[in-house]
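Posted in: Protein Modeling Q&A

I'm a second-year student putting together a small comparison for a lab meeting, and my supervisor asked me to include a predicted structure for Class I SAM-dependent methyltransferase. I've never done this before, so apologies if this is the wrong subforum. The sequence is pasted below exactly as I got it from our records. If anyone can share the structure token output, I'd also love a short note on what stands out.
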Amino acid sequence: MYDNLLTIFEKPSLYKKMEIPFWDDEHISLQMLKAHLNPEFNGASRKLDFINKSADWITRIVRPSEFNELLDIGCGPGIYAERFAQFGYSVTGIDFSKRSINYATSSAAKQNLNIQYLYQDYLNMNLNKTFDFSTLIYCDYGALSSEDRKTLLKVVYTHLRPGGKFLLDVFSMSKYNCFEEKNTWNIYPTGGFWKKEKYLEFNSSFRYSDCVTLEQTSIISPNDSAAIYYIWNTYFTKETLINEMKSEGFKICEVFSDVAGKPYCEDSLTIAVLLEK
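Accepted answer (user: helix_wrangler)
Welcome! Here is the predicted structure, written out as tokens:
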């Protein structure tokens, strides 16, 4: 237990990976799915009114009549994918949460939507086809390490046809400047998000000099050793984002404040970029 406590309070090395991935844990994945599907919660997914506005805008700047084959990377339970399909895209969604993919597949079937869902790690995808358009929405890109971001850009580039488009968003330096380092703890006597049974939760927020933050959650329960979960975020300026995209061969079409088409502003908490192969 002493060693576990030391680990909880140590600042991890940059982009340290979790020993225990939480997205397929039976209990945690159910809580994540509930968070995704809550239209008023801005955590796992954005709020429903923004999603609807965003999907409508996306279909106007990258029209399904010209860019029909769409790859939705990190599709989760299919919230965007379903809207894309309803707008006329031929949609493939990929995600590494089995529960989310199972839910998305069932939901599409109930609505007679022809969407192909794949349970895969998108960093390793090899789909043997190319797409007209790809999306990576809600700042998932910045959750990756610098090496994994390079890998992802290469993978996406390979899966786009010449002239294909790629839309993604990231957190900005304005968001980074709002981040506070702190430590908190809570007791959940009847269970909560991380476990069904009672547990003690330690939360630590760390800044790193590379415009990176870590939200670390450590869970201690009576019958288990400590489980530690990491949520990394890398933050960008307009210039650093553009340079990173160009370094992997993408052309910059336009930069926005968000994936609903708000004009770019330095004070925005997010930056969205539309790219072309």
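A couple of things worth pointing out for your meeting: Residues 199 and 221 are 4 Å apart (CA to CA). The mean pLDDT is 92.
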